[in-house]
Amino acid sequence: MIRRTFVRTVFLTATFAGVLPLPGLRASVGRADEPKLPAAFDVVDSGHEDRFVARIRVDLSGHIAIERTDPSRRRWFEDIVDDVNRQETIILPAPPPSSAPRFAMYGFPIARGDPRFLSAMRVYLRDYHSLELR
Hints:
The chain is of the alpha+beta class. The protein has helices spanning 2-16, 25-28, 74-86, 117-129; strands at residues 39-45, 51-58, 64-69, 89-94, 106-111, 131-133. The chain has one domain (2-133). A 4-stranded antiparallel β-sheet has the order 3-2-1-6. Strands 4-5 form a two-stranded antiparallel ribbon. It is globular, with a radius of gyration of 15 Å. It starts with a helix and ends with a strand.
């Protein structure tokens, strides 16, 4: 989990500095070409040359079920899936309004069941865990 801690530290540093850490946030969430749920995806680790991690199925409520996984990364990936499945809302960083106090942090909450939840989950997995759903 060293990488996760590092990413969160970088995110908080960038946010407190007034820099939006996710350029194109709104373009990434709720795209028209997003698959409809339920859906199946291959998960690859983009931080390790697109190495296969798992095959997952995402149900209508946005919960992840693991169909198969790389045995050497199974426990690590199960921890991530448990974390995502526990969350009822994913909060992505959003730019503060111009009237916000200096160093203010704002989020863009997307609740489970919202049609944009799958897109938010993809952004969350990509930015916090270097995982891509394909």
